[in-house]
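Tutorial handout. Part one gives the primary structure; part two gives the three-dimensional structure as tokens.
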Amino acid sequence: MTRHLVLVRHVKSDWGSAGQRDHDRPLNVRGRAAAKALGRWLQARGAIPDEVLCSSARRTQETCALLGLAIAPTLLKSLYLAEAHEMLAVLQGATGKAVLLLAHNPGIAELAEEIVSAPPEHERFSDYPTGATLLARFDITDWRDLRPGTGQIEDFVIPRDLT
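Part two.
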């Protein structure tokens, strides 16, 4: 059996006003447009998750909402600014066959590099800019069996590729 992963970094956020907590930063106009474009791209690719694991930060929640998915996310404070090994642990606890994990850099970039067998031929993969989205396939029957270096890349895109 196969498991599919959609690994998304939140889109562009607004740096807000003085004194605003990082956790509470909203998306900016460019980010909202990018999230909608990514949602259309996911739909066109048939990359529809049956489980969504999302950081509790406002910008990740807004990104998730604008993707236009028909599934409510599981909001996890543990994904807020998590390191790659923490994200991997969350993913290993997933139950869906197709999981979307939405979080932050630098952890998400490190996780992306760690879980695939070879990086895609895209100049922005290593820095995983805002809105970067990886589609990967794993030949496992349970997420608990997920190991580094085993993901096969199906696609990788950044919002600039879509506009």
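Part three, for discussion. The first strand starts at residue 3 and ends at 9. Residues 29-45 form the longest helix (17 residues).
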